[in-house]
Amino acid sequence: MDSVLISEVGPRDGLQSIQSIMPTLDKQAWISALAAAGLREIEVGSFVPPQSLPQMADVAEVVRHAITLPNLTVMALVPNLRGAETALSTGLHKITIPVSASEAHSVANVRKTCADMVNEVRRIVAYRHLHAPQVRIEVGLSTAFGCTLQGPVPEDDVIRLADALARAGVDEIGLSDTTGMANPAQVRRLFVRLRHSIGPLAGAAHLHNTRGLGLANCLAAYEAGVRTFDSSQGGLGGCPYAPGASGNVVTEDMVFMFEAMGINTGIDLRRLMQARAVLHRSLPHEALYGMTPDAGLPLGFVYANGRTCGPHLSPPPSSR
After folding, report:
1. Which candidate, 212, 237, 230, places its Cα nearest to that of 73?
2. Which residues pair with 15 in a beta bridge?
3. How far is CA 245 from the centre of its chain?
4. DSSP result, 208-256
């Protein structure tokens, strides 16, 4: 039976994109509920200056809670070496570094050129080797499919940047549709090129649903060999430094799609809805999205592993 890893990015990508600040205890309860639903990897926050993103000011405390949960890879974003030094001291399992393929977005997001960011990644890798060799380093190539500031991003530029990052010593490199500009043919083509260029270092698909193509793009990435997918519960998310970039692919809808196709995610949809309820209680005024939460599971739904879902799961009270 084929399987995929769904990496939940809501506690970082989702929460950084809204004005509300989720209380620390609520974040911890949400992450616990996500882990109980079967999520095996969660991006719990980002190590950035609190004045830049006050939503992430408690990230170290959130990490300390998350690493106590069994069978969970705890990941956080770091934009530079200083953030990596702090992150690696917390005991987390993985760091992810955003490196933009668009010069305009890179300067807006981290105030560095693409070449500067490759050098910063080298410094982070060297520090990791000395201080926390067990921690994995992922790079997400932001704006790989287009940029609202620059416009089209040449595919050759994306592949050259991926090659340079592979030589810098990272463990995996994924592609991110930061601005929601991708289409399925483009996604399939670029992931095939990435796998051909860097082989087993090719990593996750991080796709947005800005123009309604999120799941179609995920399926195209799957057909190109991708087996790790980022998503956000309730579709929260977007880049504050990319105008017009709206939410991530909805975790609930992605789980349903793969399980309905006979592809195992290891995630229990009932418990995932319970985690959604935790999120909604904490942020009652934030819009949550998703077709599966609105419609409920179809009668007779069976998971990829053959397990039935029990009594029919009706849609919960609206959280819009």
Report:
1. 230
2. none
3. 15
4. B-TTS-HHHHHHHHHHTT--EEEEBGGG----TTSTT--PBPBHHHHHH
Could you tell me the two tokens for 156?
A: 């050759």
Q: What share of the chain is helix, strand, coil (3-state, %, to 5)?
A: 45, 15, 40
In the DSSP assignment, the letter for residue 192 is H
Instruction: Classify burial at 13, counting beta carbons within 10 Å of its beta carbon; exposed 0-12, middle 13-18, buried 19 or more.
Output: buried
**Number of residues that make up the chain:** 320
Domain 5-295 homologous superfamily, CATH:
Aldolase class I (3.20.20.70)
Q: Which pLDDT band holds residue 320 (cuts at 50, 70, 90)?
A: very low
**Structural contact between residues 249 and 220, judged by C-beta atoms closer than 8 angstroms:** no
Taking the alpha carbons at both ends of the chain, their separation in whole angstroms is 36
CB neighbours of residue 260 within 10 Å: 15
In Å, how far from its chain's centre is CA 269? 19
pLDDT digits (tens, 9 = 90+) for 243-265: 555 689 999 999 999 999 999 99
Mean pLDDT of all residues in 259-273: 97
Domain residue extents for the chain: 5-295
Mode of pairing for the β-strands spanning 41-46 and 5-8: parallel
Confidence of residue 21 (pLDDT cuts 50, 70, 90): very high
In whole angstroms, what is the distance from residue 55 CA to residue 282 CA? 14
- In this structure, are residues 196 and 166 in contact, taking their beta carbons and an 8 Å threshold? no
* Nearest one of 191, 192, 189 to 206, comparing CA atoms: 191
Residues 225/193, Cβ–Cβ less than 8 Å = no
Q: CA-CA distance, 280 to 290, in Å (whole number)?
A: 13
pLDDT given for residue 310 in this prediction: 62
pLDDT digits (tens, 9 = 90+) for 207-239: 999 889 999 999 999 999 999 999 999 999 865
Active site residues: 239
Q: What does the alpha-carbon distance between residue 58 and residue 47 come to, in Å, rounded to a whole number?
A: 9
pLDDT of residue 208: 93
